[in-house]
Amino acid sequence: MLRTMNPLRCIMVGAVNRGELMINLVNDDPKRFVVAALVDKTAEVASAEAERRGMKNIPSYGSLKEAIAQTEADVAFIASPAQFHGQQIREALEGGLHVFVAKPMTYDFAEAEQLVLLAEKKKLCLLVDQQGQYLRTERVMKEWVKEKKYGEVVYVDFTIHRCRPNMGAFKSDNPFIWEQGVHSFNSLLSILDRPAVSVYAHQVRPKWSAYNGPTACFGQIEFEGGVYCQYLGAFESRTFTNEIRIEFDEAAVRAYSAGSFQKELQVASLAEPFVSAGITDSDDTRLAELYNFDAFYHGVTTGERVINDGRDNLRTLAIIDAFILSSKTGKRESVKQF
After folding, report:
1. Hey, which bits of 148-209 come out as E strands?
2. For residue 317, what are the contacts with CB-CB under 8 A and spacing of at least 6?
3. Cα Rg of the chain, angstroms
4. What is d(CA 326, CA 334) in angstroms, rounded to the nearest whole number?
5. What is the pLDDT of residues 199-236, one digit of tens each?
6. Can you tell me the distance from the alpha carbon of 311 to that of 309, in angstroms, rounded to the nearest whole number?
7. Among residues of the chain, what percentage have pLDDT more than 90?
8. Under a CB-based contact definition with an 8 Å cutoff, are residues 138 and 244 in contact?
9. In terms of DSSP bridges, do strands 275-280 and 236-248 run parallel, antiparallel, or are they unpaired?
């Protein structure tokens, strides 16, 4: 049964860090969502956050399973460290809750496929909070590709240098691809609006690295229609730059930034330097996460498929899976289709 009465009752998993933003956004949207319970690694942590916010009479728990058993709820917002996502998504789905989860869905591609099948079997919405594709520059690039503003796409160059020398929560292998590549590949799928076909990849762990796996990642991603993307991503570069560059028949277009994630859209004609198109990510006063909130609410209340739902997100995770496999085999690997 679809719950169409407002608001949807939400169990918030992860009360601090990323979870703090999720709680803020739910509280800012009382016509559609209401906090029903907080969950964190201990009930005391969750309770302290509820008290800090002045959220009286909001129950707090140290486990999602306990919260589901004792709370009348419709959805779970999961913003815990990603190593817990798989178990928590399964608990929520088996408890009859729709799920909004931070990226990545899980660190295990096979597990992600199983969770999507479970959500579909139970007719529950599972949505992954991928935000990059909703940034202003990327939305405009997508529009220009679709309308062929500068002709057909010929090839793509995607480069992201980050200076993040310290490990975050993820301490296993392939840290860059799982934590940053997941954003990059989701953006490419959205902008180009076509599936990835194959990947030829190589990964490097710099000798000065404090990570447990490779943090410099090189790859050639083939997309449907013979469009290729040359990809370079790194966590331990000396300074931050981010560039998504598309060479069209008639011009080059790039979303570029130095020192932050706020990109500017620029255009270059033949043998000319790039000039600003007057479009930046900072133009947008609406948070990228809110587009996913809209999609999630629609998916929960109508039962329809929405962008960034579980099956859609498997296309992103399939590129990660092929990228990691190719870097191990030294061969071009196909990308599973969904």
Report:
1. 153-163, 196-204
2. 104, 105, 109, 112, 182
3. 20
4. 9
5. 999 999 999 999 999 999 999 999 999 999 999 999 99
6. 6
7. 94
8. yes
9. unpaired
